[in-house]
Amino acid sequence: MHLAAHFPGVNATTVWADPRSRSQIDFSSFVHLARTAERGKFDFFFLAEGLRLREHNGRIHDLDVVGRPESLTVLSALAAVTERLGLAATVNATFNEPYELARRLATLDHLSEGRAAWNVVTSSDAFTGENFRRGGYLDRADRYTRAAEFVATARELWDSWTPDGDSRPFAHDGEQFTISGEFTVPRSPQGHPVVIQAGDSGEGREFAASAADIIFTRHGTLEAGRAFYADVKARLAAYGREPDDLKIMPGVTVVVGDTDAEAQEQAYEIRRQQVSPQNAILAAEQLWGRDLSAYDPDGPLPEVDPVVDSGLVKGRVLHGDPFAVVARWRAISEAKGLSLRQTVIETTTRQSFIGSPRTVAAELTAFVDERAADGFILVPHLTPGGLDDFVDRVVPLLQESGAFRSEYSGSTLRSHLGLAEPVWKG
Protein backbone atom coordinates (compact mmCIF):
# COMPACT_ATOMS: atom_id res chain seq x y z
CA MET A 1 0.00 0.00 0.00
CA HIS A 2 0.95 3.65 -0.33
CA LEU A 3 0.89 6.05 2.63
CA ALA A 4 0.98 9.83 2.84
CA ALA A 5 0.82 12.36 5.68
CA HIS A 6 -1.55 15.34 5.58
CA PHE A 7 -0.46 18.30 7.71
CA PRO A 8 -3.46 19.26 9.90
CA GLY A 9 -5.06 22.54 8.93
CA VAL A 10 -8.43 24.19 8.49
CA ASN A 11 -10.89 21.39 9.13
CA ALA A 12 -13.03 19.82 11.82
CA THR A 13 -10.45 17.07 12.36
CA THR A 14 -7.82 19.12 14.17
CA VAL A 15 -8.05 19.42 17.97
CA TRP A 16 -6.40 22.75 18.75
CA ALA A 17 -7.48 22.72 22.41
CA ASP A 18 -5.33 19.68 23.21
CA PRO A 19 -2.31 20.78 25.32
CA ARG A 20 -0.03 18.76 23.02
CA SER A 21 -1.12 20.84 20.01
CA ARG A 22 1.50 23.26 18.70
CA SER A 23 1.74 26.00 16.09
CA GLN A 24 0.42 25.42 12.57
CA ILE A 25 2.87 27.97 11.10
CA ASP A 26 6.09 27.36 13.05
CA PHE A 27 8.60 25.55 10.84
CA SER A 28 9.39 23.05 13.59
CA SER A 29 5.84 21.69 13.31
CA PHE A 30 6.28 20.95 9.61
CA VAL A 31 9.67 19.39 10.28
CA HIS A 32 8.31 17.11 13.02
CA LEU A 33 5.48 15.70 10.93
CA ALA A 34 7.58 15.36 7.77
CA ARG A 35 10.41 13.57 9.55
CA THR A 36 7.93 11.29 11.28
CA ALA A 37 6.43 10.39 7.90
CA GLU A 38 9.88 9.79 6.41
CA ARG A 39 10.84 7.61 9.38
CA GLY A 40 7.73 5.59 8.57
CA LYS A 41 8.82 5.32 4.90
CA PHE A 42 5.71 7.22 3.72
CA ASP A 43 5.38 8.08 0.05
CA PHE A 44 4.75 11.79 0.52
CA PHE A 45 3.92 14.74 2.79
CA PHE A 46 0.80 16.69 1.78
CA LEU A 47 -0.09 20.35 2.33
CA ALA A 48 -3.55 21.78 1.73
CA GLU A 49 -4.25 25.34 0.63
CA GLY A 50 -6.42 28.19 1.88
CA LEU A 51 -6.59 31.35 -0.18
CA ARG A 52 -8.90 33.30 2.11
CA LEU A 53 -9.85 33.29 5.78
CA ARG A 54 -13.31 31.84 6.28
CA GLU A 55 -16.13 34.08 7.47
CA HIS A 56 -19.17 33.38 9.56
CA ASN A 57 -22.06 35.79 9.78
CA GLY A 58 -19.95 38.60 8.36
CA ARG A 59 -16.93 38.06 10.66
CA ILE A 60 -13.69 36.11 10.47
CA HIS A 61 -14.53 32.70 11.91
CA ASP A 62 -12.75 32.68 15.28
CA LEU A 63 -12.81 28.87 15.65
CA ASP A 64 -10.58 28.43 12.59
CA VAL A 65 -6.87 28.51 11.98
CA VAL A 66 -6.04 32.08 10.93
CA GLY A 67 -2.62 31.44 9.46
CA ARG A 68 -1.69 29.17 6.58
CA PRO A 69 1.73 29.63 4.92
CA GLU A 70 2.19 29.23 1.18
CA SER A 71 2.73 25.54 0.41
CA LEU A 72 5.60 25.60 -2.09
CA THR A 73 7.67 27.84 0.18
CA VAL A 74 7.24 25.45 3.11
CA LEU A 75 8.00 22.39 0.98
CA SER A 76 11.13 23.98 -0.48
CA ALA A 77 12.42 24.39 3.07
CA LEU A 78 11.44 20.81 3.94
CA ALA A 79 13.41 19.55 0.94
CA ALA A 80 16.55 20.49 2.86
CA VAL A 81 15.68 18.48 5.99
CA THR A 82 14.28 15.32 4.34
CA GLU A 83 15.89 12.88 1.90
CA ARG A 84 13.31 10.54 0.33
CA LEU A 85 9.86 11.81 1.32
CA GLY A 86 7.68 13.17 -1.50
CA LEU A 87 6.55 16.80 -1.11
CA ALA A 88 3.02 17.57 -2.34
CA ALA A 89 1.62 21.11 -2.58
CA THR A 90 -2.01 22.03 -3.15
CA VAL A 91 -2.07 24.92 -5.63
CA ASN A 92 -5.18 26.42 -7.23
CA ALA A 93 -5.41 26.26 -11.02
CA THR A 94 -8.04 29.03 -11.08
CA PHE A 95 -5.94 31.79 -9.51
CA ASN A 96 -2.50 30.96 -10.96
CA GLU A 97 -0.88 30.93 -14.42
CA PRO A 98 0.81 27.93 -16.08
CA TYR A 99 4.23 29.44 -16.78
CA GLU A 100 4.93 30.68 -13.26
CA LEU A 101 3.46 27.66 -11.46
CA ALA A 102 5.22 25.16 -13.76
CA ARG A 103 8.46 27.02 -12.99
CA ARG A 104 7.93 26.88 -9.21
CA LEU A 105 7.03 23.18 -9.28
CA ALA A 106 9.98 22.30 -11.49
CA THR A 107 12.23 24.23 -9.11
CA LEU A 108 10.93 22.22 -6.14
CA ASP A 109 11.50 19.03 -8.08
CA HIS A 110 15.14 20.01 -8.65
CA LEU A 111 15.69 21.15 -5.05
CA SER A 112 14.29 17.86 -3.74
CA GLU A 113 15.95 15.69 -6.42
CA GLY A 114 12.67 14.44 -7.84
CA ARG A 115 10.19 14.48 -4.96
CA ALA A 116 7.69 17.18 -5.97
CA ALA A 117 3.94 16.77 -6.46
CA TRP A 118 1.11 19.16 -7.34
CA ASN A 119 -2.40 18.68 -5.99
CA VAL A 120 -4.53 20.47 -8.59
CA VAL A 121 -7.60 22.20 -7.16
CA THR A 122 -10.07 24.61 -8.73
CA SER A 123 -12.46 27.29 -7.51
CA SER A 124 -15.56 29.01 -8.84
CA ASP A 125 -15.97 30.85 -5.53
CA ALA A 126 -16.36 34.61 -5.92
CA PHE A 127 -15.67 35.00 -2.18
CA THR A 128 -12.16 33.61 -2.65
CA GLY A 129 -11.82 35.46 -5.94
CA GLU A 130 -12.16 38.80 -4.19
CA ASN A 131 -8.54 38.36 -3.07
CA PHE A 132 -7.49 38.38 -6.75
CA ARG A 133 -7.76 41.12 -9.33
CA ARG A 134 -9.97 39.19 -11.74
CA GLY A 135 -12.28 38.03 -8.94
CA GLY A 136 -14.39 34.87 -8.93
CA TYR A 137 -15.42 35.23 -12.54
CA LEU A 138 -14.96 31.58 -13.48
CA ASP A 139 -18.21 29.71 -14.01
CA ARG A 140 -18.38 26.46 -12.08
CA ALA A 141 -18.88 24.54 -15.33
CA ASP A 142 -15.59 25.91 -16.66
CA ARG A 143 -13.33 25.20 -13.71
CA TYR A 144 -12.22 21.74 -14.89
CA THR A 145 -11.93 22.98 -18.47
CA ARG A 146 -9.37 25.52 -17.30
CA ALA A 147 -7.68 23.00 -14.99
CA ALA A 148 -7.29 20.39 -17.75
CA GLU A 149 -5.69 22.90 -20.11
CA PHE A 150 -3.59 24.27 -17.23
CA VAL A 151 -2.09 20.83 -16.52
CA ALA A 152 -1.57 20.11 -20.22
CA THR A 153 0.16 23.47 -20.67
CA ALA A 154 2.42 22.89 -17.65
CA ARG A 155 3.45 19.56 -19.15
CA GLU A 156 4.25 21.25 -22.46
CA LEU A 157 6.53 23.61 -20.56
CA TRP A 158 8.25 20.77 -18.69
CA ASP A 159 8.72 18.96 -22.02
CA SER A 160 10.28 22.01 -23.68
CA TRP A 161 13.59 20.80 -22.26
CA THR A 162 14.87 17.49 -23.63
CA PRO A 163 16.13 14.69 -21.36
CA ASP A 164 19.61 15.54 -22.69
CA GLY A 165 19.39 19.07 -21.33
CA ASP A 166 18.57 21.08 -24.45
CA SER A 167 16.02 23.91 -24.33
CA ARG A 168 13.46 24.42 -27.09
CA PRO A 169 10.97 27.28 -27.55
CA PHE A 170 7.38 26.57 -26.57
CA ALA A 171 4.14 27.90 -27.99
CA HIS A 172 0.67 27.16 -26.66
CA ASP A 173 -2.50 28.62 -28.17
CA GLY A 174 -5.68 27.38 -26.48
CA GLU A 175 -9.05 28.55 -25.20
CA GLN A 176 -7.68 29.35 -21.73
CA PHE A 177 -4.03 30.25 -22.35
CA THR A 178 -1.96 31.68 -25.19
CA ILE A 179 1.71 31.78 -24.26
CA SER A 180 5.06 31.38 -26.00
CA GLY A 181 8.73 31.74 -25.19
CA GLU A 182 11.41 29.66 -23.50
CA PHE A 183 11.07 27.86 -20.16
CA THR A 184 13.78 28.74 -17.65
CA VAL A 185 14.05 25.43 -15.72
CA PRO A 186 15.66 22.28 -17.20
CA ARG A 187 13.76 18.99 -17.24
CA SER A 188 13.44 17.80 -13.66
CA PRO A 189 14.62 14.50 -12.15
CA GLN A 190 11.14 12.95 -12.45
CA GLY A 191 10.45 14.32 -15.91
CA HIS A 192 7.27 15.90 -14.53
CA PRO A 193 6.22 16.45 -10.92
CA VAL A 194 3.52 13.99 -9.80
CA VAL A 195 -0.02 15.34 -10.35
CA ILE A 196 -2.70 14.80 -7.69
CA GLN A 197 -6.40 15.60 -8.07
CA ALA A 198 -8.87 16.00 -5.22
CA GLY A 199 -12.52 15.69 -6.22
CA ASP A 200 -15.51 13.40 -6.19
CA SER A 201 -17.83 14.81 -8.85
CA GLY A 202 -18.19 13.16 -12.26
CA GLU A 203 -16.10 15.97 -13.74
CA GLY A 204 -13.44 15.48 -11.09
CA ARG A 205 -13.26 11.73 -11.68
CA GLU A 206 -12.95 12.22 -15.42
CA PHE A 207 -10.24 14.84 -14.97
CA ALA A 208 -8.30 12.49 -12.69
CA ALA A 209 -8.64 9.61 -15.16
CA SER A 210 -7.30 11.77 -17.98
CA ALA A 211 -4.56 13.75 -16.26
CA ALA A 212 -3.70 12.72 -12.68
CA ASP A 213 -1.27 10.28 -11.10
CA ILE A 214 -3.13 10.19 -7.74
CA ILE A 215 -6.72 10.97 -6.78
CA PHE A 216 -7.36 12.14 -3.20
CA THR A 217 -10.84 11.03 -2.13
CA ARG A 218 -13.02 11.19 0.97
CA HIS A 219 -14.58 7.71 0.92
CA GLY A 220 -14.12 6.17 4.34
CA THR A 221 -16.27 3.03 4.17
CA LEU A 222 -15.30 -0.18 2.40
CA GLU A 223 -18.46 -0.22 0.28
CA ALA A 224 -18.14 3.40 -0.85
CA GLY A 225 -14.43 2.94 -1.48
CA ARG A 226 -14.93 -0.13 -3.67
CA ALA A 227 -17.59 1.61 -5.75
CA PHE A 228 -15.41 4.70 -6.24
CA TYR A 229 -12.33 2.59 -7.01
CA ALA A 230 -14.12 0.54 -9.66
CA ASP A 231 -15.67 3.62 -11.28
CA VAL A 232 -12.45 5.64 -11.56
CA LYS A 233 -10.25 2.74 -12.65
CA ALA A 234 -12.77 1.88 -15.41
CA ARG A 235 -12.40 5.40 -16.85
CA LEU A 236 -8.65 5.07 -17.51
CA ALA A 237 -8.84 2.90 -20.63
CA ALA A 238 -10.55 5.68 -22.59
CA TYR A 239 -7.32 7.69 -22.22
CA GLY A 240 -4.98 4.82 -23.09
CA ARG A 241 -3.99 4.33 -19.47
CA GLU A 242 -3.59 1.22 -17.31
CA PRO A 243 -5.25 0.75 -13.87
CA ASP A 244 -1.94 1.17 -12.04
CA ASP A 245 -1.30 4.52 -13.73
CA LEU A 246 -3.63 6.24 -11.23
CA LYS A 247 -3.35 5.64 -7.47
CA ILE A 248 -6.53 6.07 -5.41
CA MET A 249 -5.79 7.35 -1.90
CA PRO A 250 -8.65 8.37 0.41
CA GLY A 251 -8.03 10.74 3.28
CA VAL A 252 -8.49 8.84 6.55
CA THR A 253 -8.19 9.34 10.30
CA VAL A 254 -6.79 6.76 12.70
CA VAL A 255 -7.02 6.25 16.46
CA VAL A 256 -4.64 3.67 17.96
CA GLY A 257 -4.96 2.27 21.50
CA ASP A 258 -3.51 -0.64 23.44
CA THR A 259 -6.81 -2.47 22.91
CA ASP A 260 -9.80 -1.99 20.63
CA ALA A 261 -11.90 -0.87 23.61
CA GLU A 262 -9.32 1.71 24.69
CA ALA A 263 -9.10 3.05 21.14
CA GLN A 264 -12.89 3.42 21.00
CA GLU A 265 -12.83 5.42 24.24
CA GLN A 266 -10.07 7.65 22.85
CA ALA A 267 -11.99 8.14 19.60
CA TYR A 268 -15.12 9.22 21.48
CA GLU A 269 -13.15 11.78 23.48
CA ILE A 270 -11.48 13.10 20.33
CA ARG A 271 -14.89 13.55 18.70
CA ARG A 272 -16.10 15.52 21.72
CA GLN A 273 -13.04 17.76 21.49
CA GLN A 274 -13.52 18.27 17.76
CA VAL A 275 -17.16 19.28 18.20
CA SER A 276 -17.28 21.83 21.00
CA PRO A 277 -20.67 23.46 21.72
CA GLN A 278 -19.58 26.40 19.55
CA ASN A 279 -18.52 24.13 16.70
CA ALA A 280 -21.82 22.26 16.90
CA ILE A 281 -23.74 25.50 16.35
CA LEU A 282 -21.36 26.45 13.52
CA ALA A 283 -21.92 23.12 11.76
CA ALA A 284 -25.69 23.51 12.11
CA GLU A 285 -25.61 27.11 10.84
CA GLN A 286 -23.60 26.03 7.83
CA LEU A 287 -26.23 23.41 7.03
CA TRP A 288 -29.33 25.44 7.85
CA GLY A 289 -28.00 28.73 6.43
CA ARG A 290 -29.49 30.52 9.43
CA ASP A 291 -28.32 32.22 12.62
CA LEU A 292 -28.91 29.52 15.26
CA SER A 293 -27.11 31.20 18.16
CA ALA A 294 -30.30 31.15 20.22
CA TYR A 295 -30.39 27.34 20.13
CA ASP A 296 -28.92 25.12 22.85
CA PRO A 297 -26.26 22.78 21.40
CA ASP A 298 -27.28 20.22 24.02
CA GLY A 299 -30.95 20.59 23.09
CA PRO A 300 -32.97 19.32 20.11
CA LEU A 301 -32.29 20.10 16.45
CA PRO A 302 -33.78 23.30 15.00
CA GLU A 303 -37.34 22.79 13.80
CA VAL A 304 -37.07 25.35 10.97
CA ASP A 305 -36.24 24.54 7.34
CA PRO A 306 -32.83 25.37 5.88
CA VAL A 307 -32.23 28.47 3.74
CA VAL A 308 -30.33 27.69 0.54
CA ASP A 309 -27.42 29.98 -0.47
CA SER A 310 -28.00 32.38 2.38
CA GLY A 311 -24.38 33.58 2.40
CA LEU A 312 -24.17 33.21 6.19
CA VAL A 313 -21.05 31.05 5.96
CA LYS A 314 -18.36 31.87 3.38
CA GLY A 315 -15.32 29.84 2.44
CA ARG A 316 -16.75 26.42 3.30
CA VAL A 317 -18.14 23.84 0.89
CA LEU A 318 -21.48 22.19 1.73
CA HIS A 319 -21.73 18.66 0.37
CA GLY A 320 -25.21 17.56 -0.67
CA ASP A 321 -28.72 19.01 -0.69
CA PRO A 322 -29.30 20.79 2.65
CA PHE A 323 -32.93 19.61 2.86
CA ALA A 324 -31.86 15.99 2.42
CA VAL A 325 -29.02 16.33 4.92
CA VAL A 326 -31.30 17.98 7.50
CA ALA A 327 -33.83 15.17 7.04
CA ARG A 328 -31.09 12.60 7.63
CA TRP A 329 -29.88 14.42 10.75
CA ARG A 330 -33.41 14.55 12.13
CA ALA A 331 -33.94 10.84 11.51
CA ILE A 332 -30.67 9.99 13.29
CA SER A 333 -31.45 12.32 16.18
CA GLU A 334 -34.92 10.87 16.67
CA ALA A 335 -33.85 7.24 16.34
CA LYS A 336 -30.96 7.56 18.82
CA GLY A 337 -32.29 10.30 21.08
CA LEU A 338 -29.40 12.64 20.28
CA SER A 339 -29.02 16.35 20.99
CA LEU A 340 -27.84 18.80 18.34
CA ARG A 341 -24.21 18.48 19.42
CA GLN A 342 -24.44 14.69 19.64
CA THR A 343 -25.95 14.58 16.17
CA VAL A 344 -23.10 16.67 14.76
CA ILE A 345 -20.60 14.33 16.44
CA GLU A 346 -22.44 11.31 15.03
CA THR A 347 -22.59 12.60 11.45
CA THR A 348 -19.41 14.59 10.88
CA THR A 349 -16.45 13.30 12.90
CA ARG A 350 -16.33 9.53 12.80
CA GLN A 351 -12.75 8.24 12.63
CA SER A 352 -12.00 5.89 9.76
CA PHE A 353 -9.89 3.28 11.55
CA ILE A 354 -10.07 2.69 15.31
CA GLY A 355 -8.44 -0.10 17.29
CA SER A 356 -5.28 -1.75 18.52
CA PRO A 357 -2.24 -1.56 16.24
CA ARG A 358 -2.98 -5.04 14.91
CA THR A 359 -6.65 -4.23 14.25
CA VAL A 360 -5.82 -1.01 12.41
CA ALA A 361 -3.11 -2.71 10.32
CA ALA A 362 -5.50 -5.53 9.34
CA GLU A 363 -8.30 -3.14 8.36
CA LEU A 364 -6.00 -0.95 6.25
CA THR A 365 -4.67 -4.01 4.50
CA ALA A 366 -8.20 -5.29 3.84
CA PHE A 367 -9.12 -2.00 2.14
CA VAL A 368 -6.25 -2.41 -0.31
CA ASP A 369 -6.75 -6.14 -0.81
CA GLU A 370 -10.45 -5.63 -1.58
CA ARG A 371 -9.76 -2.85 -4.06
CA ALA A 372 -11.24 0.01 -2.10
CA ALA A 373 -7.96 1.97 -2.20
CA ASP A 374 -4.34 1.82 -3.32
CA GLY A 375 -3.26 3.54 -0.13
CA PHE A 376 -4.20 6.28 2.32
CA ILE A 377 -3.54 9.92 3.12
CA LEU A 378 -3.52 10.05 6.92
CA VAL A 379 -5.07 13.17 8.48
CA PRO A 380 -3.98 13.32 12.15
CA HIS A 381 -6.00 15.19 14.76
CA LEU A 382 -2.94 16.73 16.43
CA THR A 383 -0.27 19.13 15.13
CA PRO A 384 2.47 18.00 14.78
CA GLY A 385 2.63 14.73 16.75
CA GLY A 386 -0.54 13.09 15.50
CA LEU A 387 1.29 10.49 13.38
CA ASP A 388 3.75 9.33 16.04
CA ASP A 389 1.68 6.40 17.36
CA PHE A 390 0.80 5.19 13.87
CA VAL A 391 4.40 5.21 12.69
CA ASP A 392 5.73 3.61 15.86
CA ARG A 393 3.03 0.97 16.35
CA VAL A 394 1.13 0.28 13.10
CA VAL A 395 3.75 0.70 10.39
CA PRO A 396 6.00 -2.09 11.78
CA LEU A 397 3.06 -4.52 11.58
CA LEU A 398 2.35 -3.50 7.97
CA GLN A 399 6.02 -4.02 7.17
CA GLU A 400 6.10 -7.37 8.95
CA SER A 401 3.16 -8.63 6.89
CA GLY A 402 4.62 -7.38 3.61
CA ALA A 403 1.78 -4.91 3.06
CA PHE A 404 4.13 -1.90 3.18
CA ARG A 405 7.76 -1.21 2.33
CA SER A 406 10.50 -1.62 4.92
CA GLU A 407 12.89 0.66 3.02
CA TYR A 408 12.65 3.08 0.11
CA SER A 409 13.71 1.36 -3.11
CA GLY A 410 14.20 4.57 -5.08
CA SER A 411 14.83 8.26 -4.55
CA THR A 412 11.98 9.95 -6.47
CA LEU A 413 8.30 10.17 -5.63
CA ARG A 414 7.45 8.38 -8.86
CA SER A 415 9.62 5.46 -7.78
CA HIS A 416 7.81 5.29 -4.42
CA LEU A 417 4.46 5.18 -6.21
CA GLY A 418 5.53 2.72 -8.90
CA LEU A 419 4.85 5.28 -11.64
CA ALA A 420 6.90 5.38 -14.82
CA GLU A 421 8.68 8.58 -15.76
CA PRO A 422 6.63 10.43 -18.41
CA VAL A 423 7.65 9.82 -22.00
CA TRP A 424 9.24 12.97 -23.36
CA LYS A 425 7.04 14.64 -25.97
CA GLY A 426 9.30 16.93 -27.92
TrEMBL record:
<feature type="binding site">
    <location>
        <position position="90"/>
    </location>
    <ligand>
        <name>FMN</name>
    </ligand>
</feature>
<comment type="similarity">
    <text>Belongs to the NtaA/SnaA/DszA monooxygenase family.</text>
</comment>
<dbReference type="Pfam" id="PF00296">
    <property type="entry name" value="Bac_luciferase"/>
</dbReference>
<keyword id="KW-0288">FMN</keyword>
<dbReference type="GO" id="GO:0016705">
    <property type="term" value="F:oxidoreductase activity, acting on paired donors, with incorporation or reduction of molecular oxygen"/>
</dbReference>
<protein>
    <submittedName>
        <fullName>LLM class flavin-dependent oxidoreductase</fullName>
        <ecNumber>1.14.-.-</ecNumber>
    </submittedName>
</protein>
<feature type="binding site">
    <location>
        <position position="144"/>
    </location>
    <ligand>
        <name>FMN</name>
    </ligand>
</feature>
<feature type="domain" description="Luciferase-like">
    <location>
        <begin position="21"/>
        <end position="334"/>
    </location>
</feature>
<dbReference type="InterPro" id="IPR051260">
    <property type="entry name" value="Diverse_substr_monoxygenases"/>
</dbReference>
<keyword id="KW-0285">Flavoprotein</keyword>
<keyword id="KW-0560">Oxidoreductase</keyword>
<dbReference type="InterPro" id="IPR016215">
    <property type="entry name" value="NTA_MOA"/>
</dbReference>
<dbReference type="GO" id="GO:0004497">
    <property type="term" value="F:monooxygenase activity"/>
</dbReference>
<dbReference type="InterPro" id="IPR036661">
    <property type="entry name" value="Luciferase-like_sf"/>
</dbReference>
<feature type="binding site">
    <location>
        <position position="201"/>
    </location>
    <ligand>
        <name>FMN</name>
    </ligand>
</feature>
<dbReference type="InterPro" id="IPR011251">
    <property type="entry name" value="Luciferase-like_dom"/>
</dbReference>
<keyword id="KW-0503">Monooxygenase</keyword>
